[in-house]
Automatic annotation (TrEMBL):
<feature type="domain" description="Trichome birefringence-like C-terminal">
    <location>
        <begin position="10"/>
        <end position="120"/>
    </location>
</feature>
<dbReference type="InterPro" id="IPR026057">
    <property type="entry name" value="TBL_C"/>
</dbReference>
<dbReference type="Pfam" id="PF13839">
    <property type="entry name" value="PC-Esterase"/>
</dbReference>
<dbReference type="GO" id="GO:0016413">
    <property type="term" value="F:O-acetyltransferase activity"/>
</dbReference>
<protein>
    <submittedName>
        <fullName>PROTEIN TRICHOME BIREFRINGENCE-LIKE 9-RELATED</fullName>
    </submittedName>
</protein>
<dbReference type="GO" id="GO:0005794">
    <property type="term" value="C:Golgi apparatus"/>
</dbReference>
<dbReference type="InterPro" id="IPR029962">
    <property type="entry name" value="TBL"/>
</dbReference>
<comment type="similarity">
    <text>Belongs to the PC-esterase family. TBL subfamily.</text>
</comment>
Amino acid sequence: MAVAYYNSQVNAMHYRALDWNNPNAAMCERETTPILNMSIPLEGSNDHRYFEIAEKVIHSMKTPIRFLNITTLSEYRKDAHPSIYNKVPSPEQKANPAKYSDCIHWCVPGLPDTWNELLYVYITNQY
């Protein structure tokens, strides 16, 4: 019996607007589209050597485990964070989004639903 291993490694954090060529942006605030140029290496990106190590370990295990890597999908979704809108923003928060934007957590519904749909499809296709 195979075990599905679902991992996003470390959450993508979109604090460097220079990663998507927008030096005037206040981190992820007011972002409405994903990063469309996936050839751009992201400065705050995860170290993908960890995935190579994880895959080697998983392939050497006696119990079969599948590695569903959703990290790259998440790294390019600068638009999927609540920014300053995770609650009603104060005038101070609206005036300084670079200080108050939440660029770590994810909006629901949104990207976490995509992760769940991918896992659901994977599981239903296996059994």
